[in-house]
Amino acid sequence: MVAVASLAVLALLALTMIEATRGSTRSAQAELDRARLTAAADAGVALAVQGLAQPSAARRWRPDGRVREVTFGAATLEIRIEEELAKVPINTLNDQQVEALFGEFGLQGAELEEARDAFLDWRDGDDEPRLRGTEAADYAAQGIRPRNGSLRTNMELAAIPAIGPELALRMDPYISVFTPTSGRFARANASPLARRVMADRVFEDGFAGVTVAQGGLNESETGRVDDGVTGRPLRVIVTARGADGAAARRNVVIELTGNPARPYVVRARE
Asked: In what order do the strands lie in the sheet with 247-259?
């Protein structure tokens, strides 16, 4: 009886060790799969740079927001390139443009005025609140300090109570913290929303008019999209998907340098 019991205990221990080993193997495989997808997403950024730098205008990728699908090993890459200077530059908007921006997202009346004034108070350098705005004293209880300067990320808007995370997320694809050094707005690659907000700004010369939908150009839309993107901030968004549905994502802002030894630099990473 003792011998039989001892054998049963040993068998139970052996089964426990086997299950633990299987669990460790599954965990290690999952980590390996994640690493492969992450590497594939990084490769997608490199492919985007290669596509943007093609010497042939016919083969060159354009920052038009459309999704390009590429197979890389066992992963499927979805690559999207957006021109940041074709988005609404939230750090240089005047009061009327700020109001127009929030109006595009359905705000009106007192709600719009609160969002406008709170945003402008967040961005300006003083602690004097506008009529419906908020300054440092209003944020103190939440442990938040207004920027009192240029925003560094789009989602910084989420910290402003009159805007909040939900609206900030909706605005994110259309706005940018990158400011054109020339003071010009790249209209050719801009969405209709951005064009309406920026209606009184100087546009870059030489761009033919095109209509850009949220997901990029529609098949029925025609026109020349700007090819001269060297020196401009470009957002590259890559999603690498595995056969099992797992995914890895890269969201970076790059700038092409025109230097073969260092073809691009990363301006921001999310």
From this structure: 64-72, 75-83, 233-241, 247-259, 262-269
Judged against a pLDDT cut of 80, whether residue 82 lies above it is answered with yes
Phi, psi of 218, deg, nearest 5: -75, 160
Instruction: Give the pLDDT of residue 217.
Output: 33
Its CATH class, for the domain covering 91-173, is mainly alpha
Whether the Cβ atoms of residue 49 and residue 234 lie closer than 8 Å to each other:
no
The helices-and-strands tally (H runs, E runs) of the chain is 6, 7
Query: pTM for this one?
Result: 0.76
For the chain, where do the domains classified as CATH 1.10.40.60 start and end?
91-173
| Whole-number Å distance between alpha carbons of 184 and 29 | 50
Sign of CA dihedral 57, 58, 61, 65: positive
The mean of the pLDDT values for the chain is: 84
What pLDDT does residue 226 have? 44
